Structure formats: C-alpha cells, structure tokens
Amino acid sequence: MDKSLKGLLKEKKATILSRWFGAIMESYPIDITGFFQKQEDMFANPVGHAFKLGLESIFEALIEEKDLSEGLPLLDDIIKVRAVQDFTPAKALSFIFILKKMVREELEKEIRQDQISDELLSFESKIDDLALFAFNIYVKCREQINQLKVDELKRMTFTLLKKANLMYEIPMEEVKPSDQETSI
Amino acid sequence: MAKVEKVKTPKPQELSQIDFKPPTTDWMDTPTVIKPGNFCWGGKEKDLLTLGLPNPRQWSPADEDWKLPEGWESTILEGMAERLAKYRSFKIFMDICVRCGACADKCHFYIATGDPKNMPVLRAELIRSVYKKYFTTSGKFLGKLAGARELNEDVLKEWWSYFFQCTECRRCSVFCPYGIDQAEVTIIGRELLNLVGLNIDWISGPAANCYMKGNHLGLEPHAITGNIETMCDDIEDITGIRVNPTFNRKGAEILFITPSGDLLGEPGIQTCMGYLMLFHELGLDYTWSTYASEGGNFGFFTSNDMAKRLNYKIYAEAKRLGVKWILGGECGHMWRVLSQYMDTWHGPADFLEVPKSPITGTVFENASSTKMIHISEFTADLIKHKKLNLDPSRNDHLKVTYHDSCNPSRGMGLLDEPREVIKAVCNNFYEMPESTIREKTFCCGSGSGLNASENMEQRMRGGFPRANAVKYVKEKHGVNMLANICAVDRAALPALMDYWNPGVGVTGVTELVANALVMKGEKERTTNLRFEDLPGKGGDE
User: Fold this and answer.
1) CA distance A30 to chain B (A)
2) Helix (H, G, I), strand (E, B) or coil at B348
C-alpha cells in the first residue's frame, strides 16, 4: 500500500474539517448570513469557535490514535454547547457520525481502489468509540442541568432552612470545585 | 381527479443521500415550537388577580389551548394603536429600521442559538409585521410583499416565545446606527401580551409579592429584620463587632434600599453583610425600610403602569421617614428604573436633598433630580478620599474579573466606579476582552425575569457568550471569581459558572470590600464572609 489512511487523512485534513464543520452547521436553523461559519472572532462567535477548535482536536486525536479515556477538553466544550441547544440527544451527537460520511466521500477514489479498507474500518470503529465517549459527556451535561436547578433552589432557601434548624452545613461546599471539574 | 403517483422504491445509493439541511422556509412560514427547557411557566391565576391584570386563569404554555380571552385580537390591536399614539419611540422604532443587520449578531441568544428569530432585527420584525398589516397603507394593500402579516394565535405564541427570550439587555442598541432600542420593543411586546394574560410566573409572581409585601420574595417585616439579624450574628462571629442596623427609623439621614435578593440566598447575603459592615464602620446615619424593601422592579417586565405602581413606594417611604436622600444597593434593572424612569413617574423629589456623602462631603450632582445614588458611586468616592482602611491581601486568594451588569453599564453609564472599588480591595484583577465588557458587556442570559429554573437550557445558552469570555480569563490568568453589581447576576451566574466554568465563584463587589475592610476594634479575622479560611490566617486555605 503506497498511501496509508493516516497519510491521506493528514493530506486532506483541511478539506475534511471544513466539510465536517459545514455539515454540522446545517443542523442549525437556516441563516443566510452564515454567522457561525464566517465570524472569526472567538468572543463574537463562541459557538463557531468551539466547533472549529474542537473538531480539529478530535480529528487529530483520531488520526494519532490517542487514548480517548484521557479526555478531550475541546470535545467537552462542543458537547456542552450542543447539550443546551434544543436538540434531541440523537441530533446533538449526530455530528460525530457525520465525520464518517465526510471521510468516505473525500476518500471515495482510494476506497474504490480498495487500498485502505482495513484501516478505514478501524478508523471508523474509533469514531464509534468517540461517539460512546461523547454520549457519556452528553449525559453528564444533562444531569448537570438538573443538578443546577437543585443547587439554585438550595442557594435560594439556605437561609430559611438554617433559621428553621433544618440545615446546618452548606451542601454546596461539600462538592469541591475541583471534583466538579473532573466530573465532566 | 388527482393522479395517483406510483411510489418509487429508492435505491440504496439514494437512501444514503441524507440531506442534513432543515427545510428552507421564510421566517414567517417557520413555525415556533414551544418546548420544555425553552420557556418559563405561565403567570398564575392568583398573581394576575392580585395585580389586577387581565385574563387571570390557570394555563400552561405547554398546552395547545392558552385560554385566550374572547376578542383577544382586537384587544392586542387596540393596545398597539394606543401605544403607537402614546410612545413616539415605539412608532419610530417600527418605522425606521432599514434592516442593516448591525444588531443581528450582537444578541447573546442569537450568538448561542443561531436562530434568526433571535436576531434583534427579526425579533422586532415579529411585531413590526403586524404593525404593517394593520397600521400602514403599504402593508394593508401589499400584505406579505411589504413584510406584513395577519395577527393570529400562532403569531401571538411566537411573540410570547421570543419576547421572553430577550433579556432587555440593550447590547444590540449600542450597535444600531439609528439608536433603535430593542429592549423597548420587547417591553411593548410584553405589555401587549399582558393585555391578554400572557405573562410568565417568574415575573408575575414576584410582582404580586412586591405589590402585597413590598418585595419580590414576599418577605414580611419580621422576616426581613430576622434575616438581617442573622447576618449580624455572622458578622459578629467573623469580626467580633456587633453591628446594629435600624429599621423604619424616622429622621435618619439616609434610606437604604437594595434588591430583596440580597436578603435571602447566596451569595446575595454576603453582599448584604458587606453593606452592613461598611455602613457600621462609617457610622452612617441610615435606616432600612421593611416596607420599601425592594429596589428591583419586576413590574418593569410587565408594563409601564405596573413598574410605576411598584416604584411608588420608594419616594413614599423616603417621605414618610423624613430622610434626606436615598442610597441604593447593587442591582441591575433596579438602576435602569431608578435612573431613567423614577423621576418621570414620581419626581421631582423636592422633599429630598441632593445626595451628599456625610463622610467626604462629595455632592452627587449626577443624582440632583432623583436624589438616589448607587453604592458603587458612594464607595468609590470613599476610596478616592482614602476614608477606608483596607487590607486587599485578604482577597489575595482571589483572581477577580468584573462582569458589567447590563443595566448599570448601558443604562446609567456606571463603568469605572465598580472597577475602582475592586482594584482598591483586590490585588488580582483581570479584565475580560474589550468586546465583552463595559457598554458592550454580554448579558448573564437570565435578566428581565428569565432567571427561572424551568428554562435552564435557555439560560445556559443565553449566558454562553459571557461565560466564554470568563473562560478566556480563567485560562489565561487563573481567574476564580466573577464580581458584579447585580442581584440577578448573583442569583443566575453561579449556575452559569458551574456549567461552563466550574471553579469560578460569584461575588457582589461590596462583599469584596467588606472582606478587605479593616474595621475599628475588630478581632483578627480568620475567615471571610463565607466562613472560608483567609489565606495565611488559618486552616487549609
């Protein structure tokens, strides 16, 4: 085999990433201004920015065959956004599977010539692993949304509960910020 | 007879051609979906009855039938006609927009959702299209061609959805070359919705409480004094000093009014402890009121009349107690109302004097008409005149950034005073990027009555642009504390930070002041106002 899949993916990285990003943007309402895609400023367009950085780091991790259990902070960032954007769980995570389609379309010729099928299978399995990993993150985000509601209620009623001798400690402090950080 | 088309079985290749694009429809033809997580519960019957608002009934936005009153269409259109005649600004805002789009990508809700109806220009268009249909010649004759559309139940529901997805933060108006204030369009939109009984519980509940008990939380006088006494106990534990605030005391020089959020719930109470300690240290001749016990005004999110009615008690109480001037606590929309509406509604407050700091002698000419100043102005003046003994090293464990609350920054230009205060009481202060602070500040995503729990997803995405800027300074400088001067911020930002930036706390500016304040005769402090160990003073910091 003169060209490995890794080499091909590296070569076509820019195109694949750009098409992947474009395909994800199509899950958002039609916006002729193309705001998410065009606005480059990370503060004016935090959603587009999270995707641009995140997709690249995910793609790199897949090519370099990194151990996903070590965590991908930029994947967290993307999923945090998708988890509060009014998508069904399936749609929220569909962006991961779209990568398969993009890779297959970009490498159509090489696939047809059957140069890379074994490697491609293993690459696609890795995308499946990533999807499962993303599912963990997504569920934690959703659980956190509910936890936030509980915490907010506690913050609001703490003084009353303390006065009524129904609460002695501040439960919020039992969870150290560092614990929360690793839990996502 | 219609021809029946033969169903063609798609080939495998065709099946794999999935179109990920949602259907392209014109905004008018794109239906609005009311989904859990994206809306706040509807206003309750009992609260609408208390406030004397139209169409009180039990209803749920999740139901198909919103139980609208008979003839609601004419109620809305008549209400619109009345407001077009009464408010020149509304008429102008309906007429002059040229759709340049400068506002479009400035709204935090649009930035986070990409939903075109969250563009301020299109949010206004939701109401403008109806205005065109019934109030302009071109719209009457040309209809949709002129951007006009009929008022129907779907349109009304769309208004409700999107006018309660606007926090009236006014960031878009900063960028509008015509000065169109989208907050005012939203305000009118909400007024019209209220004419047919479409408010949200998180607004009408607090407004009803405020009408009956004087504050949004519905705290009765004994609860207010009780809560403040508890804070005084905590202050004594921390500093060894007993502060003795007075309530409803006639003849005091100053009446102090703060949002009731500072009386209950964290971290509002620590800000409130800060006020108590600062005033005690200064020996300020001031009093609290258990009647005018709310600085905020959720009536402002209902209608002009409701806001005016709830605001009345502030001057009335100042008059009853015979104070000279009024000092106000840290709050957001409270200050837009006080600074821009109170004087028109209930002024001029001739019975009061222009606020003059009894400590520095500074006369606050900027408040010569309202006679009410903001605690940050008052404290910044004390600091400028070196009247406070401060030990900023007590805040050394904090790396602070400052969130300009929308209303004090854009509504009254309070930009530098809080920063001067923070810099005097903290050694580690870092600004967020220029495009996200001062008059361009990003909203917390929960303002204007949207800080309920049921719309948590909406709040998390609305606050994302703000959280994203905090994340930047967190990563760059290790920022771990987000300071602000708004009670809604103190209530809403902790959740926003927990979600986007775990480890970043939220504090009122006055809490930082009180932690740094070296009070006369205090014992050596080992903890801050949250009973956390001070750096180098105890336990495991």
Assistant:
1) 7
2) coil
User: What are the tokens at A166?
Assistant: 């129904």
State whether B20 and A23 contact (CB < 8 Å): yes
Domain count, chain A: 1
* Distance (Å) from the alpha carbon of A62 to chain B's nearest alpha carbon: 24
Domain coordinates in residue numbering, chain B: 27-199, 206-516
Contacts of A184 in chain B (CB under 8 A): 502
List the single residue in B101, B115, B265 with the smallest CB-CB distance to A156: B265
Are A98 and B20 an interchain contact pair (Cβ–Cβ within 8 Å)? yes
Q: Each residue of B6-35: b (16+ CB within 10 Å) or e?
A: eeeeeeeeeeeeeeeeeeeeebeebebebe
Q: What per-residue confidence (pLDDT) applies to A138?
A: 96
Q: Which domain holds residue A65?
A: 5-149
Question: Are B432 and B442 contacting, i.e. CB atoms less than 8 angstroms apart?
Answer: no
A156: in domain: no
Of A99, A111, A151, A155, which to mutate for an interface test with B (greatest number of B Cβ within 10 Å)?
Answer: A155
pLDDT, residue B541, reads 41
In a domain, A131, yes or no: yes
Cβ atoms of residues B443 and B336 within 8 Å: no
Tell me how many residue pairs between chain A and chain B have CB atoms under 8 A apart.
135
Q: pLDDT band at residue B38, thresholds of 50, 70 and 90?
A: confident
Half-sphere exposure of B440 (CA within 13 A, CB side): 15
| Shortest Cα distance, chain B CAs vs residue A127, angstroms | 19
Do the chains contact at B105 and A85, CB–CB below 8 Å? no
Cβ neighbours, 10 Å, residue A174: 8
Q: Find, among B12, B363, B157, B264, the residue nearest to A164 by Cα.
A: B264
Asked whether the beta carbons of residue B114 and residue A35 sit closer than 8 angstroms, the reply is yes
Tell me which chain B residues have a C-beta less than 8 angstroms from the C-beta of A81: 112, 461, 464
Does A31 contact B105 at a Cβ distance shorter than 8 Å?
A: no
Asked if residue A72 belongs to a domain, the reply is: yes
Distance from CA of B231 to the nearest CA of A (A): 10
Residue among B31, B30, B37, B39 nearest B61 (CA)? B39
| Cis amide bond preceding B358, omega within 30 | no
Q: Which of A72, A99, A90 is nearest to A18 (CA)?
A: A99
SS3 B506: strand
Closest by CA position to B89, among listed B185, B195, B186, B190: B185
* B114/A157 Cβ within 8 A: no
Please tell me the distance from the alpha carbon of residue A126 to that of residue A68, in angstroms, as a whole number: 9
Q: Compare B436 and A5 and report the one with higher pLDDT.
A: B436
Please list, in sequence order, all residues whose beta carbon lies within 8 angstroms of the beta carbon of residue B399, skipping any fewer than 6 positions away: B428, B430, B477, B478, B479, B480, B481
Length reported for chain B: 541
Nearest chain A residue (CA) to B32: A29
Give the model confidence (pLDDT) of B266-310 as tens digits: 899 999 999 999 999 999 999 999 999 999 999 999 999 999 999
Q: What is the pLDDT of residues B129-175, one digit of tens each?
A: 999 999 999 999 999 999 999 999 999 999 999 999 999 999 999 99
Q: Do B114 and A47 touch (CB under 8 A)?
A: yes
Query: What interface predicted TM-score (ipTM) does this complex get?
Result: 0.84
- Is residue A168 assigned to a domain? no
Q: Give the CATH class of B27-199.
A: mainly alpha
